[in-house]
Amino acid sequence: MFRKKAVFTFLQAQVAAFLGGITDYGLMILLTEVFKLHFTFSILISGTVGAIINFSINRFWVFKNQSGYSSPINSQLFKFALVMLGSITLKSSGTLILQKVFQIDYRIGRLITDLFVSYGFNFPLIKYWVFKVNEKQNVIESN
Predict the structure, then answer these.
(1) What is the pTM for the complete model shown?
(2) Scanning 35, 56, 81, 93, which has its CA 20 to 30 A from the CA of 118?
């Protein structure tokens, strides 16, 4: 039962990340290609919009039964903002490094960087820090 719920939560979180990510990526391309912003600035703007979408889906759908309504939104927003600030910094830096050092097109470099940042940074921090299940609630759910 626990594994099934954990896998379902992980898959839901991936849907939230995908929807936020596709918005983020599409907006980055638009801002860079059409509005001619440098991709690092585009990532900053698009990452913020994607983060708002991601947070909303995570709070109201993915983690709502675990901690979404039991934790104050201000606390979650603050923590989420810190995670997203780190995420955007890692994505911008990683994309820039891949483009400058390895001559990888920024669009491809961004996808590569996103894979590492999403699974190695964002998901663990969002699940275990931003929307952390408190011990009392965990005991209630397992009974």
Answers:
(1) 0.79
(2) 35
